[in-house]
Each structure stands twice: as structure tokens, then as C-alpha cells.
Amino acid sequence: MAGAVIAKLEHVKEFIAQKRRKFASPISPEAAAVRTIRNLRSFQYIISLSLPLP
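The chain above was modelled as a monomer; its predicted structure follows.
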């Protein structure tokens, strides 16, 4: 039982390390700007849906 738990914890630790490496990769300034604009548009759309209509 303990061996299975340790193996699962090792698997989770490796999974988190892979995600950290993936998201730590540098991106170009252009890609960062496009991502920011997309996030702002998405946020604006969500806000427009959540506000009551007059």
C-alpha cells in the first residue's frame, strides 16, 4: 500500500514539473500581446453577459 502511494506521489511530482517547464517557456512579446488581448476580450464578453440589461 505504501509503495503505491509513494509511486503515485512521484507521478504527481513529475506531472507538476512537466507543467512548470511547459509554462516557464519564454514567449515572444508579440505572442504575449496577442494573449493579453484575447484575455481582455474574453473578460469583456463575460462581464457583458453578467450585467443586467436595462
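Residues 2 and 8 are 10 Å apart (CA to CA).
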